[in-house]
Amino acid sequence: MERVIYHVDVNSAFLSWESCYRLYHLGGRLDLRQIPSAVCGDISLRHGIVLAKSMPAKAYGITTGMTVVEARHRCPDLYMVPPNYTLYQKCSKALLQILQEYTPKIEVFSIDEAFMDMTETISLYGDPVSTADGLREKIRRELGFTVNIGISLNKLLAKVAGDLKKPDLVHTLYDYEIPQKMWPLPVSDLFFCGRASTKKLHTLGIRTIGELAHTDVRILRQHMKKQGETLWAYANGIDGSEVVTAEDSPPQKGYGNSTTISFDVDDPAVAHKVLLALSETVASRLREAHVKAETISVGIKSFDLKYAGHQMVLDDPTDITEEIYRYACILFEQLWDHKTPIRHLGLHTGRIKDGVTARQMNLFDSTDYAKLARMNRAVDQIRRKYGIDAVKRAVFLGVQENGHKIDHLEGGISREKRSVDYTKQKID
Questions:
Q1: Is 338 left (phi over 0), alpha (psi -120 to 50) or beta?
Q2: Is residue 18 within a helix (H) or strand (E), and if so which, with residue range?
Q3: What is the pTM of this model?
Q4: Which one from 2, 70, 107, 113 is the annotated catalytic residue?
Q5: What 3-state class would DSSP assign to 205?
Q6: How far apart, in whole angstroms, are the C-alpha atoms of residue 4 and residue 174?
Q7: Partners of 53 in beta bridges
Q8: Residues of the chain with pLDDT under 70
Q9: Which residue from 15, 71, 82, 133 has the fewest beta carbons nearer than 10 Å?
Q10: Omega into 167 within 30° of 0, i.e. cis?
């Protein structure tokens, strides 16, 4: 049976979801998708970058990841709104519920993208293109936002197809269409071809996907090793990967969080508080997944954006907040020179083990780890039931550093990005 793979991608997802919420729930009349607009982080918290932009904003040269200052320079009248990840997660969930009506084989690729294996269910709906058109219109009718859908025989070509032209369109990219539709595109448009790979290919005189597809793979392997071989296969439309559902996805190899601090830290006590807050979130994620970590690493990005990291192997795998924090502080003290101001801190764990692991006895360590584990689980239960702020350590109560409060649960999606107080927002 010939495979039928869809790639569904929400057009300007964050901005579209924000626009729909304002139009259909807050009584707004201005459609952010029709004007130069962008979802942007808070400059005062050093999160001031563009997270999503409208098509009219794109015409000004505004790109995702650009600083707010530069975006304002390119478009002085840019309409900016704050991010609301709680809303985005709800919209993503609503989208997934519609996709599941068509097939159970869905791979969530990101919060606004998914692959659908329609091979076994397409006969229930009709031909692939008309079915995709019906799905696209159903999403727009029921949820208010638009998507692009790419159709092909594998995930790679389906993804490239979905990106051919936007918004609100369905595209196919079958083998016989590759020379006309894919090969004229720049190599930077090829999946898995990042900035570094694009630069290497340009030095070899390769600028289009077609030129890459017709290059001797031995030359690519010589200059780019395995990456060159992979890109050559992709340029020729070769991809054997399956659509992997959440139930079939491999176990996570590591858990970590990081945070950009809203001020430069030069006090070790303050840095330790940030590490404690990161330890809280990372350890809770380990416990939620019923796993433990055997390695811990700490990363520091200084005020001048230079990065340094250090890691260690633990004697016993752990998911205990206090233990992870203790080792994080040891690594931090080994890594930091106590002089260079810190802008960003990260805490990551690896060598993930099953949660049921024995602990090596130590005559010189009197810590009651079983008691700490029970306490951590109790705190997790309270936070799940009554909210993440129901229990917090006293060290974070009323703590202000340089006029900024350190959150007791740092990392991941920062608190100011999780929700928006729309009573303080201008809804046009």
A1: left
A2: helix 13-24
A3: 0.85
A4: 113
A5: coil
A6: 10
A7: 38
A8: 43-47, 399, 401-403
A9: 133
A10: yes
